Amino acid sequence: MKLKLTDEKIFDIFLLSVICFMVYQAWGFPFRARLMPLLAGIPAAVLMGLIIIKGFFIKPEGDSKPLTDEEKKRQKTIFLCIFALLVLLTLFGLNIGLGIALFLYVWFVAEWKFWQSALMGGGMYLLIYLLFDRLMSFRLYKGYVYEEFLWQYFR
User: Fold this and answer.
1) pLDDT tens, 10-44?
2) Which of 66, 83, 94, 123 is the most buried (most CB within 10 A)?
3) How many helices (H) and strands (E) would you count in the chain?
4) Residue 71 pLDDT grade (very low, low, confident, very high; cuts 50, 70, 90)
5) In degrees to the nearest 10, what's the CA dihedral of 104, 109, 114, 120?
6) Nearest CA to 121 among 133, 108, 134, 132?
7) CA 79, CA 70: separation in Å to the nearest integer?
8) Closest by CA position to 30, among listed 153, 145, 138, 118
9) Single pTM value for the model
10) Residues 22 and 37 sit within 8 Å (Cβ to Cβ)
11) CA 137: distance to chain centroid?
12) Which residues contact 32 (CB under 8 A, 6 or more apart)?
């Protein structure tokens, strides 16, 4: 069996090395600072490892074909969702921005009902607030709107 190294596999190995470096560096941090890199990095390293193993040992089905209109639309939707998430995180911070982003995604892209979307977005806000702000006393980024305009009202 011959292992073929393609550009995609090289990129996957590079991502795995970046994730492993992040996890390695996190071990030197104090407990509170290392928690998030480890919670994100260890599962990401395992998944990246599985992707690399799959890429080497499982043959892809069929040849690559040009993208259909539906696939192009899906790519544009993904790009717009990521861009909207970054804008919301910058403007409203992690806590409120993630709740709004999840609400908008579930309502417009997944096409759930309004009340289900609002419940999902509110649940995300509540989870982040309770987990990081109350339980672990982390000070998360509040966002540009809060830092520039609302900080004098809500200290």
Assistant:
1) 888 888 988 898 888 888 877 877 888 888 889 99
2) 94
3) 5, 0
4) confident
5) -60
6) 108
7) 14
8) 138
9) 0.60
10) yes
11) 22
12) 136, 138
Q: How many residues would you count in the chain?
A: 155
What is the number of alpha carbons within 13 Å of residue 73 lying toward its C-beta?
Answer: 4
Contact criterion met (CB below 8 Å) for 105 and 124: no
**Contact of 62 with 49, CB cutoff 8 Å:** no
In whole angstroms, what is the distance from residue 104 CA to residue 42 CA? 29
DSSP, residue by residue, 56-114: HHSPPSS---PPPHHHHHHHHHHHHHHHHHHHHHHHHHHHHHHHHHHHHIIIIIS---H
Greatest Cα pair distance, the chain, in angstroms, is: 67
